[in-house]
Amino acid sequence: MSELNLCSRRQADKLISNSMVYLQGKLVEPVLGQKVDANETEIKIQLQNGEYKSVGELSDDKGETVVLNKPKGFVSSQPETNKIPAVRLLSRENIFTPTQETKNILKSGNYLHFGKRFHDENGVSTLMNYAPAGRLDEDSSGLLIFTKNGVHAKNILTSLDKEYLVKVEPAQSLSRREVEMGMTSLPYPPKWDLTFLKRKGNRLWNDTKALKPVVDAEWIEEGKDTDGRWNGEGLMRIVLNEGKKRQIRRMCRELLGLHVVELKRIRVGDIHLKNLPVGKWRPLTRKERESLIPKD
């Protein structure tokens, strides 16, 4: 059930153990680790009221995935020395203006459990056992998703588009890292033509595997000098369907000759940052949760 992207392994174990899983109309014995054919489509769940639903229709994960507006200065993954993990911001105090749906999730007692995982001087309790689904480096900000749901995590990492706003300026010189990689120069910044980023075959320096074509790329704002000419600065919108480490920053320098001044993620799939304040988090809405269930 987990490998078919029907639900997480933990959720599957719980459903099978509770004798709620039916295969082609027959109750599955409560024995964990059983296998079914990869083309099986007749897996159903019997709810307490006797109603049958497919696993993907279940909605008992109301608090298993949340979204944070990550500020700069926080790292998304396990921190190195003197780095602050973004999960520390998932505190009760940082919930963004709870909607009635969020209040119901908190009142249920089944989700959004807090604990003092991090021992800092303030002793702040944060959400327990949530992991980031994707990365957003220390110098970047914006939408960062945390989840305990394996199906959600897999779909976010492998299937969904990620949209970014990228403020740039002309790169002045090679960085030490670029020199060490063997680069001798950077390309001249293009003015408005970003269409080549949508083509196949673009590569980052020394990478053997080509990048996937970007889903979309466009200039939103163009910086002007005192004579009204483009000064190389501006704001771009870039949509990716993959997420290599520091990919946008490297693309801008190595393919466009532009240095990223600010980078902000504003969307993952159908989940938008919108008016979520910096440093605040919220659970997903029902519609957003449903968008993370694989359609195939």
In a nutshell, what does this entry contain?
It contains 6 helices and 17 strands.
Highlighted features:
296 residues; alpha+beta
Structure description:
The protein is of the alpha+beta class and 296 residues long. The chain folds into three domains: 9-57, no CATH class; 65-160 and 271-291, Alpha-Beta Plaits (2-Layer Sandwich), CATH 3.30.70; 162-268, Alpha-Beta Plaits, CATH 3.30.70.1560. 17% of the residues lie in helices and 27% in strands. The protein has helices at residues 9-17, 100-108, 150-158, 176-181, 247-256, 286-291, and strands at residues 21-23, 26-27, 43-46, 52-54, 65-70, 74-75, 84-85, 114-115, 126-127, 131-132, 141-147, 162-170, 216-224, 230-240, 258-268, 271-272, 281-283. The strands form four sheets. Strands 5, 10, 11, 12, 13, 14, 15, 16 and 17 form a nine-stranded mixed beta sheet that branches. It has a four-stranded antiparallel beta sheet with strand order 2-1-3-4, with no helix packed on it. A two-stranded parallel sheet has the order 6-7. The longest helix has 10 residues, at 247-256. The protein is globular and about 75 Å long. This is Pseudouridine synthase RsuA/RluA-like domain-containing protein. GO terms for molecular function: pseudouridine synthase activity; RNA binding. Residues 65-253 form the Pseudouridine synthase RsuA/RluA-like domain.
